[in-house]
Every structure is written in C-alpha cells, then in structure tokens.
C-alpha cells in the first residue's frame, strides 16, 4: 500500500509533535508547518494527501489558507480537517462553508482524529467507481469524479461529490441525517448532524449556474432529512 502523507499545520510544537508520532505509528508520512505561507509552499511542492489545519495561526488564519486552496484548481479537492479550539457553531459552520471537509475541536484524542483521516481518505479515493449517472442535463462521471451540467463542469468539493453520487445511486428515497452520515462519512466516524446540513447547502449551491438551477433535485423532507428526486429537475 502506498504511504499516505498528512500535512499538519499548527503553530504549537507540542501538538505537531504529538500528531507526528501518532501518525507515524500507523504508517502515515507526516509533514509539518507552523504558518500559512510555509504550509502553502509544502502543499505546492510535496502534494500531501490530506491537511490537518489549525484555525489560529501566525501571519494569517487557517481559514485564509483554506480559501486559497479552494480557489486554486490544483488543490481544490484536497481534503482538509480543521483543528480548532473554537466550538461556537458559527465558527464551525464558517469553516465548513469555506470548504473544510471535517473539523475536530481541541483537545482531541489522536485515535479519533486518525479514524477521521482514514474515513476522509477512503471517501476521497473512491474514484474506482466508474459509474456514469445522468438526470436530465446533469451528468456525474465516477471515473473522473466530475459533474457536468449541460456539458459544463461544475465546481464541487469531494464531500459534495460523494453526497451527490450517493443520492443519484439511491433516488426517490428519504434519508435521515444519521443515515447520510453513515453512508457518506462512514459509520465508525463521529460527525455532528449539522455537518450534513452545511454540505447539503453547498451541494445545492454547486448545482446552480447563471443559466440553470438544479438545486431542486435535493429535496428537504420535513421530519426526516433529505432525498434526491428527478422531479426537482427544471423543465423546458
């Protein structure tokens, strides 16, 4: 199995050292940075498989680096887990809205974090699925992990892609948030239910262009959760 590389971005040496030891014990390669400039240089030069990104950093916040990574084509789909002491809901949602795939609040257990890393890497490497699915003008290509609307590629993060892939594989059925967490995030990974709502909102936004709005494919089912329905596709 190819060694996977994790970039730890945190200004506290003790945390980086603890994470490096925990990651190397389970055969991850660990890269380290204590500021966003060095972190971005490492991302460009060494292409890690996933980033553990602290919120508060010298010379700029982790959120600034996250925004930059999501703007750039080469790093847009790079999985990111935010490490934060901020527990207020607005801060968590802000990080997820910018493009983080998951978050974990300090202090945390290294075993839980490693479980989340593995789950996120499994989701991000699911490109083996070569299914091509289509609803009206919306096409999902599992092999290239791209989504097209009227042949134009949509800008969509890896978690939104996985959600859409699951929904299109299981149309017209309502799923609770917990069921979606189990199916898309993994049954052995603890993620709060509100995380689903954030990614659903991002998926709906990704399904909207200046010319077409396919966000209606993702329907809210009151008292239950969400479902994917081809009846939500625009007509005419």
Automatic annotation (TrEMBL):
- Annotated Response regulatory domain ranges read 5-121
| Gene3D superfamilies in alphabetical order | 3.40.50.2300, 6.10.250.690, Winged helix-like DNA-binding domain superfamily/Winged helix DNA-binding domain
Its keywords, alphabetically, are: Activator, Cytoplasm, DNA-binding, Phosphate transport, Phosphoprotein, Transcription, Transcription regulation, Transport, Two-component regulatory system
DNA-binding annotation, residue ranges on this chain: 130-230
**Where does the protein end up?**
Cytoplasm
- Residues bearing PTM 4-aspartylphosphate: 54
Q: Tell me, what's a Pfam family for it?
A: Response_reg
Going by the entry's taxonomy, the superkingdom of the source organism is recorded as: Bacteria
Q: Which GO terms describe its cellular component?
A: cytosol; protein-DNA complex
The OmpR/PhoB-type domain covers which part of the protein? 130-230
One Gene Ontology term of the biological-process aspect is: phosphate ion transport
Predominant localisation class: cytoplasm
MF GO annotations: phosphorelay response regulator activity; transcription cis-regulatory region binding
Question: What is the role of this chain?
Answer: This protein is a positive regulator for the phosphate regulon. Transcription of this operon is positively regulated by PhoB and PhoR when phosphate is limited.
Q: Which NCBIfam families match?
A: PhoB
- Official protein name in the record: Phosphate regulon transcriptional regulatory protein PhoB
This chain's source organism reads Chromatocurvus halotolerans
């Amino acid at each position: 199995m190819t060694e996977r590389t994790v970039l730890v971005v945190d200004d506290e040496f003790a945390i980086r050292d603890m994470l490096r030891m925990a990651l190397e014990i389970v055969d991850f390669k660990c890269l380290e940075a204590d500021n966003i400039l060095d972190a971005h240089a490492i991302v460009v030069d060494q292409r890690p498989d996933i980033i553990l990104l602290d919120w508060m950093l010298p010379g700029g916040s982790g959120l600034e680096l996250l925004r930059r990574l999501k703007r750039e084509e080469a790093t847009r789909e790079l999985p990111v887990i935010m490490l934060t002491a901020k527990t207020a809901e607005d801060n968590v949602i802000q990080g997820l809205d910018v493009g983080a795939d998951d978050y974990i609040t300090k202090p945390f257990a290294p075993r839980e974090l490693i479980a989340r890393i593995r789950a996120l890497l499994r989701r991000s490497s699911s490109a083996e699925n070569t299914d091509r699915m289509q609803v009206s003008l919306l096409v999902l290509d599992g092999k290239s992990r791209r989504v097209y609307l009227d042949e134009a590629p949509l800008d969509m993060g890896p978690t939104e892609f996985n959600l859409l892939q699951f929904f299109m594989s299981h149309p017209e059925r309502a799923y609770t948030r917990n069921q979606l967490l189990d199916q898309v995030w993994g049954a052995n990974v603890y993620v709060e239910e509100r995380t689903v709502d954030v990614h659903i909102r991002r998926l709906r936004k990704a399904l909207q262009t200046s010319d077409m709005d396919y966000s209606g494919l993702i329907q809210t089912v009151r008292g239950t959760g969400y479902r994917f329905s081809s009846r939500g596709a625009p007509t005419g």
